[in-house]
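Action item from last week, closing it out:
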Amino acid sequence: MSIRKHIPNTITCCNLISGCISIYLTFNGFHFGAALMLFAAAVFDFFDGFAARALDAKSPIGGELDSLADVVSSGVAPSFILAHHMKGMGVEWMVGGVNVFVFTAFVLAAFAAVRLAKFNIDTRQTSSFLGLPVPATGLFVASLSLMMMRIDENGLLMKIVNNPYFFVIMISAFSWLMVSEVPFFSFKMKNLRFGDNKLRYILVVFAVVTFAVFQWVALPFIFLFYILLSVIFYRG
């Protein structure tokens, strides 16, 4: 087999490694870097599929490897970031001397694995998704963490997002969205026509404008806007 056939899987492995590095950085207190590594993982996740199509190097093992990498980089690694934030909230659900409140963060990883398993056997998800894509969940968690590092710790927004109930609701909502049948649009573009890509263009414009104005604070709202656009389109 030629070297070019291995390029997509190599990129996928970079996705996996990025997730592992994120976990390591979370453990060692480098939370900004941990969040950025999830963005790096998402970039690799996008380009492995792009490379596979461009090089005509699609393979069954590539699809399975991609899902395994996403479980780590967009499921397990974000859960560790959430667990870090939840650890400092002062909530104690003690069982046998262990605070199990923090463990609720890993519910997200479990649902991410279920979502990816469903995706692998679902032949309907070719041009769009049924259920929130796992990388979108991982990026939301990363963007939320970056936002929390940038906003006033005494401000209203920080009081909202640093509330333990917010985290429990957020984990529950994203877990459900990942395994739901709600359609979400993908970023695969067959052409550049506005009519065929209006949701993608609207999201890009929203992302550029809000990030230019609010910078890091805008990131989680961009992903929430993606969810809102998809839900509105679905209901329509």
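Closing note: Residues 37 and 132 are 21 Å apart (CA to CA).
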